[in-house]
Structure formats: C-alpha cells, structure tokens
Amino acid sequence: MAAAGLRTRHRERHGAGRAGWLRAAVLGANDGLVSTSSLVVGVAASGASGSAILTAGLAGLTAGALSMAAGEYVSVSAQADVERADRVVERAELTDSPAAELDELAGIYERRGLNPTLARQVAAALTERDALGAHLRDELGHNEQNRARPWQASAASASSFAVGALVPFLGMAAPSGSARLVLIVAVTVLGLAAAGALGAHTAGTSLARPTLRVVIGGCAAMAVTALVGVLVNTAGL
Fold it and tell me: Which residue in 64, 56, 29 sits closest to 180, CA to CA?
C-alpha cells in the first residue's frame, strides 16, 4: 500500500511536451524584444522625433509579429508534411511486408539492449496492439508530444513577439531624446533578462547561462543599430 501510495504521488516534470510551443514562444519574445528595441534605438540615435520613433516601433511590431506567424506556420507545416509522408510510407510497408517490419522492430529493441527472444516478444506485442504507432515511435522517432502543430507554433510565435516588442515602448515615457534613448535601452535589458530567465525556468534548465546569452545578444544588436543611427545623424541624411 505504501509503495502504491508513493507511485500515485510521483509526478515527473519533463520539458519534451512543451518543446514545440516553448521554442516558438521564447524565439518570438526574444525576437520581439531585440528587433523592436534595436529598431527604436537606431531611430532614436539618429535624432528623430518622438512620433517618428513611435511609428517605427509600431511598424516593426506589426511587421515582425506577422512575419513570425507566417514563418513559423510555413516551417512547422513542412515538418508536419514530412510526418504525414512517413506515416503513408510506413503504413504501406506494414501492409506489403509485415514479417520484415516485425523483424525490423525486433532488431531495434535488440540494439537497445534486449535479448533476441525478449525483443521478438516485445515487437510482436506492440505490433499486435498498434503496429504503425510502434514503428513511427521506435523506428522514426515520432511521438505525440513532439508532433508538429503549425497553428499552435504560429500563434505562440506571433503573440510572444508582440508581447516582447511592447517592452521597448515603455522607454517612450521619457520626455527628452537622450533620456528616452537611455530608458529604452534600460527597460529592454530588463526585458531580455526576464525573457531569458523565464525561458530557462520553463525549460527546466539553470538560469544564468541562457539569461546571459539573451542579454548579451540583445545588447549587441542595439549597439549596432545605435551606431547606424548615429552615423546617419552625423552624415545629415
């Protein structure tokens, strides 16, 4: 009874089931922060007016979110097409050569450490229960947790981009040009740190390295676009 009670309370927390939407969401938030803040910083560094900075930021937010949505949908749809094609091929092979497919499945389990007799028994049992599912999972690595979901990835990417892109707009609260630029950079760095830490926490990894990676990458992007803005301003373009 005690052992059974322990088993019912045991809950494992793995990140595999979140991999698809988490990747899209983290990528979207980071891209929204970095691209929009870099755009706004570059325009601000050129000495543009507040309305020009705001317009550039809003245009970047809108274009970026739509681009992320379309890009994720196309990319993940291609993965889904591959998965569907694999199912068709595997179903045909099971129909045409069931004995060879059973041997193939048994061989997979042997290579994973089972003795030949047990591997054959496991392969036969799984084939009887769900032959296609067994081959998709153990031969091709397909599983429900990691299945391609284009609409989910598209929505997660676009919405997270928009959320991340809104952060630099907090810096627009500053009244003057120089103070506005400093505040935009400051709130963006804080946003990058928060996004990096949140992504690491959700994925179940340590916080320091992913957070630092996101912050350094974002700061480098802002520095480059700020330099472009300064050069444009200096050239009087």
Answer: 56
Question: pTM here?
Answer: 0.66
Ordered mean pLDDT values, 10 residues apiece, the chain (237 residues): 49 50 70 88 85 90 91 87 84 86 86 87 86 80 72 85 89 77 88 82 77 88 89 79
172: nearest Cα among 162, 181, 164, 159: 181
User: Residue 140 — φ and ψ, nearest 5°?
Assistant: -105, -10
pLDDT at 55: 92
Under a CB-based contact definition with an 8 Å cutoff, are residues 226 and 188 in contact?
Answer: no
Tokens 């047990």 identify what position? 118
Query: Tokens for 163?
Result: 């959320």
Cα–Cα dist 209/194, whole Å: 13
One-character DSSP codes across 109-150: HHHTT--HHHHHHHHHHHHHHHHHHHHHHHTT---STT---H
> How far is Cα 182 from Cα 167, in angstroms, rounded to an integer?
14
Q: For residue 144, which phi and psi values (nearest 5 degrees)? A: -65, -35
Query: CA-to-CA distance for 110 and 233, rounded, in angstroms?
Result: 68
CA distances to 72, 149, 209 from 157, rounded to whole Å, are: 7, 12, 23
Looking at residue 140, its amino acid is L
Residue pair 233/45 in contact by the 8 Å Cβ criterion: yes
How far apart (Å, rounded) are the C-alpha atoms in residues 127 and 138?
A: 12
